[in-house]
Amino acid sequence: MTENKNGFSPKIAAFCCFHSAYQAADMAGATRHAYADGIYIIRVPCAGKVEGLHILQAFEKGADGVLVLACPEESCHFISGNIRAKKRVNHILQVLEEIGLEPERLKIFNLASNQALRFLQVVNGMAQRIKDLGPSPIKAGNSGR
Amino acid sequence: MIVGERKSLEEIRKMINGYKKVLVAGCGTCVTVCFAGGEKEVATIASALRLAAQKGGDAVEISEATIQRQCDIEFIQELKEKVEQADAVLSMGCGAGVQTIAETFGGKPVLPALNTRFIGRTEEQGIWSERCAACGDCILHLTGGICPIARCSKSILNGPCGGSKDGKCEIKSEVDCAWQLIYDRLKSLGQLDLLEKIIPVKDWSASRDGGPRKQVREDMKL
C-alpha cells in the first residue's frame, strides 16, 4: 500500500516496546487492520532497551527509516525506559546529522497498548514520509561490514 | 579516572581519509566508564563511519577491537593481528593509549578519536567533573580534601580571590568556588585553623614545569 509509481516500498525497522506498541500492533492485526507492508516489527522488552547502535545497525542493514515506539511518557512499564529511549534517539539524530542522513528517517513516538489506531497512524505516516523522502542512500550489506 | 570526549565525526573522517582499512580500537578502562571509548562506543562510531563512508561513496573497511587497557603493552599485544591487517588505527583510548599503540606498532599511523580532557570523577551517570591536575605535589590534607589546583579556576593556594561571590566562581555562575568549598569543609571538620597557615609558593617542578615525568620503582622492575 506504500509502493509509489517508481516501485519504492520503504523498509522501516520499528522497535516496539512489548508493553505498549507491540500490543497495539497485535490489536491492529487482530482487528484485521492492514498497515504498510515494509514495516519490520522488532519486539523489545522496553524502548529503553534500544541502544543507539541498534538504530545505526538498522540503517546499515538497509532500513530506509527507523521507528522507536515507546510507552506514554508518564507510564513506562520500567519507569523511565521511554525517557531513556527519547534521549538516545536524540543523540543518534545528532549522529545521523554528522553522517548526512536526513533526520526524518528516525522518529520516536509514544503510544499505549490499546491504541491500535494510533499505531496504524504512526507507522503508515512514517511509511508515507519515507516514501516521499526516497530510499536511504545506504545500501544493505554494502557499508563495508 | 581519565575522562575523554569523542571528536566530531567530521574531524575523525578527515583523519582517516585516504586509508582503506581502519581498525577502531577501544579501551576497557577509564574511557569505557565515561562512555567515550569502550566496546559500545567503538561499535557505534564504527557503524557511523561505515554509514558515512557509504553515504559519501568512500571505500573504507572498518574493523573493531576493544582491549582491557591501551596503556599497557601486554594488553596491546592482543591487537597485533588486527593492527597488521589495517592501514591505520583509530584509537578511542586516552592520549596515553594512543601513544602506547603508536610506540608498540611503529609502522602504523595511530589516530586519536577522542580528546582527553581531565582526571575526574563521575558526579552522576552522564556527568563527570575534574578533580585532579596531576601536579605531582598533593596538598589535599591542607584543604579539606578539595583540590585548589584542579578546582579553583586560578589554581590559587591561599584563596579565595575577589571573584568569589555567593560561593560561585566569577568565570561561570555554575562553577563552585573551590575556596568556598574548602572553607565549608574545613569548618565542618573543625579544622579552620588550617586556613591560618600560609601555603608557600608551589614548586611546579613536580608538575609539567619539570618536563615529561617518569617514575621508576627499582623494587618492582623485573
Quick overview of this protein structure:
With 145 residues, chain A is α/β, with parallel strands linked by helices.
What does this structure look like?
The complex is a heterodimer of chains A (145) and B (222). Chain A is α/β, with parallel strands linked by helices. Chain A is built from four helices and four strands; from the N terminus they run βαβαβαβα. Chain A has helices spanning 21-30, 52-60, 81-99, 116-133, and strands spanning 12-17, 39-44, 65-70, 106-110. In chain A, helix 1 crosses helix 4. Chain A starts with 11 loop residues before the first strand and ends in a 12-residue tail after the last helix. Chain B has 222 residues and is an alpha/beta fold. Chain B has two domains: 2-118, Response regulator (Rossmann fold, 3-Layer(aba) Sandwich), CATH 3.40.50; 135-201, no CATH class. Chain B is 30% helix and 23% strand. In chain B, the strands form three sheets. Chain B has a four-stranded parallel beta sheet with strand order 3-2-4-5, sandwiched between helices. A three-stranded antiparallel beta sheet of chain B has the order 1-6-7. In chain B, helix 6 (95-104) links the parallel strand 4 and strand 5 (110-112). The model of chain B has no long low-confidence stretch (mean pLDDT 96). Chains A and B meet through helix 2 and helix 3 of A and helix 3 of B.
